[in-house]
Amino acid sequence: MYEPRTRAEATASIARVRALLARPHRFAPADEEALGAFNVVERIRPVAAIEIALQLFLLACGVLTLVAGGIGVMNIMLVAVAERTREVGLRKALGASDRDVFVQVLFESVLVTVTAGALGVAFGEGIVGFFWAIGGRTPDQRMWVPRVEPSLGLAVLSFGVLVGTGILAGVVPARRAARLDPAVALREE
């Protein structure tokens, strides 16, 4: 059994071991039949490639989910603006500026995403907490149920990205509401 200092030295160290053992045992260092070697690094490479592919797949799923969620929030807010056309027209007729209406609708879309984000983070932390509680205590148990730990940084990042998506999704409905003409809005039923 032989282990190099680093994984990068694995191939070179196999060649050195072959050269050291070849002379006393009378075989050619390049003879694969004379001395077998198992390089763990060669076995890890395909797994690392699969891990990278899985991470890219999960990233794509996350981005598509955010896009779908953003479109959903935008549609909800567009419907809310359409249903409240008279209210927006009345506010503008009573002196609310375009900026006031824009901020109100944008705030409502942010409120929707903050609420959804808080519920999502709480749900995710609950799932991670469950797996942390049942996680393996011994190495044999960890093989089947790995130890999972909650990550505050990842939760904050996820929440921030979600709120940013909500802000972007709320801009279009907020602009539409801010541009409503009060006279036209009050005539609509």
Could you write a compact summary of the structure shown?
The chain has 189 residues and is an all-alpha fold. The chain is built from 7 helices and no strands. The protein is elongated and about 100 Å long.
Write the layout of secondary structure elements.
Layout: H1 10-25, H2 40-83, H3 85-93, H4 98-134, H5 139-144, H6 152-178, H7 182-187
Helix pairs in contact: 2-4, 2-6, 4-6
Question: Could you characterize the architecture of this molecule?
Answer:
The protein has helices at residues 10-25, 40-83, 85-93, 98-134, 139-144, 152-178, 182-187. With 189 residues, it is mainly α. The protein has a domain at 57-187.
Radius of gyration: 30 Å
- Distance N terminus to C terminus? 83 Å
Stretches with pLDDT under 50, minimum 5 residues: none
Biggest β-sheet: count, sense, barrel?
A: none
Q: How many distinct helices? A: 7
Our estimate of the beta-strand percent is under 5%
- Give the % helix: over 70%
Number of strands: 0
SSE string: HHHHHHH
* Overall pLDDT score: 85
Structure class: mainly alpha
Shape: elongated
